[in-house]
Amino acid sequence: MDWITWLIVGVLALVVVVTGTIVLVRRRALPPAQQRPELPAEPESGAETDVVPEHVDAPVAPATTLERPEAPATRMARLRRRLAGSNNPLARGLLSILSSDRLDAEVWDDFEATLITSDLGVGPTQELTEALRRELAVDGVSDPGHAKAVLRHELLNLVGPAMDRSLNLQGADGKPAVVLVVGVNGTGKTTTIGKLARVLVAEEKTVVLGAADTFRAAAAEQLQTWGDRVGVPTVRGPEGGDPAAVAYQAVQRGIDDGADVVIVDTAGRLHTKTGLMDELGKIKRVIEKLAPVTEVLLLLDATTGQNGLIQARVFAEVVQITGIVLSKLDGSAKGGIVVQVQRELGVPVKLIGLGEGVDDLVPFEAEAFVDALLTD
Fold first, then answer.
1. How far apart, in whole angstroms, are the C-alpha atoms of residue 319 and residue 295?
2. Is the alpha carbon torsion for 180, 74, 326, 344 positive or negative?
3. Nearest-CA neighbor of 133 among 166, 178, 100?
4. Is the pTM value of this prediction over 0.70?
5. CA quadruple 138, 143, 146, 150: dihedral sign
6. In 3-state terms, what secondary structure has residue 122?
7. Is 277:314 a contact under the CB 8 Å cutoff?
8. Which residues, including other chains, have CB under 8 Å from residue 348's CB and lie 6 or more apart?
């Protein structure tokens, strides 16, 4: 083989060596290949999974729709029929005098008996009877329109049209008004407080509820349910805890929130238990370390009659009652207790409950009450 052939072979060998070296260097310079992540296995059809993919929004609970309470000004017209003559024992007794052919001694005796059994009381019954006998002595009931006008006038005088029945909802020094609600077991106190909150919300007031009835297991839960329906916060404490402490915290919450009114529920006090009555006095004193109590409302069941008056006397000895709330003042009640309890305590009936509906609590109006009783 001549020298030219060796030269060609040498050049080719050199090219091969150089090329191999370049490839080797490039491979060493490259970063190691990255491992491709594995995707999670797709769940089988119908299978449940707790994993929410990042790109999918988690389901959002629907917003609670707050109820809009009925305005108090419209309630009495709707509820007035429940006090009408055909439904109420007191009303039937009053209307009976207008349907008599003549007013003799027997008619007046029956009239008095009917009013007394309707819880009007002996004193008010005698006053009303004497006034009617005097006014109707000449014409009797020959002119039904005149006789009814006389009856309305005298009855309205008994009910007390001049009494101030407004709620004192003006707090001192920018603090909220504090309404303390008291009453015995079974009068529907917690429910009535929930309805009162609705009345105030309908009047554009901000409210805080205090569940100071810590002795009845369901009381706080029940009150909070009422509040939640209209967007009113409820301050609660542990079951069996100190009611005065809960009341204090509720008022403090009202001050912190700038609320207009704080309504404090209390345990249903049996008027025979002196210790519980003392506790009620303690609640009021503790509240007033923060803010004055502007209203103390006594809730009475209108169907209890004379027993309700006994309860009223005992509560008035413990706390200064400023107003009365009569629940169940519909067809089952005798109605005369409105007059009698006002005379007993010297304070007005401010609110009445006329049914089971959530907006069946209304401000008491003397004229509307009397007109409803005299509606056939």
1. 11
2. positive
3. 100
4. yes
5. positive
6. helix
7. yes
8. 160, 163, 164, 165, 323, 324, 342, 364
Please give the distance of CA 154 from its chain centroid, rounded to a whole number: 35
Q: How far is CA 223 from CA 18, 75, 167, 300, 313, in A?
A: 92, 22, 21, 19, 27
Yes or no: say if 93 and 114 are a contact pair by the CB < 8 Å rule: yes
Of residues 59 and 344, more confidently modeled: 344
Q: Which residue has the tokens 């907006």?
A: 359
Is a pLDDT exceeding 80 seen at residue 346? yes
For 297-340, how does the pLDDT look when each residue is reduced to its tens digit (9 = 90+)? 999 988 877 778 888 888 888 888 999 999 887 655 567 888 88
Residue whose entry in the numeric block shows the structure tokens 């923060």 = 290
207-211 and 261-265: which strand pairing? parallel
**Amino acid sitting at position 200:** L
Q: Are 207 and 236 in contact (CB under 8 A)?
A: no
Q: Judge contact between 251 and 237, C-beta under 8 A.
A: no
| Greatest CA separation for the chain | 167
* Mean pLDDT for all residues in the chain: 79
Kindly state the tokens that stand for 111: 């009239």
Cα dist from 216 to 43, 78, 209, 273, 275, whole Å? 50, 34, 16, 16, 17
Question: Does residue 93 sit in helix, strand or coil?
Answer: helix
Q: What is the mean pLDDT of residues 249-266?
A: 96
Q: For residue 172, what pLDDT is reported? A: 85
Place of tokens 């009936």: 349
Q: Which of 158, 162, 185, 160 is nearest to 299 (CA)?
A: 185
Paired tokens of 217: 């297991």
Strand pairing partners for 265? 181, 211
Measured in Å, how far apart are the chain's first and last C-alpha atoms? 144
Report whether pLDDT(51) > 90: no
In sequence order, the 6+-apart residues with CB closer than 8 A to the CB of 42 are: none
